[in-house]
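Example record

One chain of 227 residues, shown exactly as stored in the release files.
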Amino acid sequence: MFQIGKAFKVKVEISPNMIGFGQATVIDAQRSKIYLQVKTEKKEKVVLPKGSHIWFVASDTSLPFKGWWTTTVQSSRTIHNKQTLECNRPIFESVRQKRKAKRAIYQCPIELAGKKWAELPEFFSHNISKSGIRIETTGDYANAFATQSKIELTIKSKFGPIQTKASIIQARYNWLANKTIVGLEFISLSEESQDKLDQLLQFLDNKAIKSLPKTSKDSLLSNWLKK
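Predicted structure tokens for this chain:
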């Protein structure tokens, strides 16, 4: 699959708390090694330190990975007069669903409580569930969000403000989109905020069902009646 000359979309570990996206081209391949050139969307070559992880993304429907092919950078090396990253032969890692609840796409302003966040640009939600939310903003601020630390925020939803305390699960900078993306898990909501969150999720669920083709709606109704 990893033939010489083939290009793949990749997710790369730039630093321990920073993930980016780009394109990797196979310059050479051996039994236990593969040599890659990694570039950003702006066609800038990326040099990654030893130990950095690279995940290959299936952008071709003929390659339905249903998981990740991943490799680790061992060193840099010149191959065919090109500077490359020498990596281990990619191995396959199956994807397992780890989320506690189904997430729905929803965008609204997010207010972070505390002086620490006053200098940052405004955040917006990207998706939300009963157990957590993903928020994002323009620019690189991933280092401001320490994993497992706590944060208080207000979700300015169409059903009113939802105030919550959350734990930071991950924070990363996507250099191609120039966005900081933060994953949060709810750890404390008042009864009022929980009611508003439930209303919002029910609204989003109904909206998703209405957008389905009629045959899909009938199938959902049939499955519900069988319960």
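Notes: The two ends are 44 Å apart (CA to CA).
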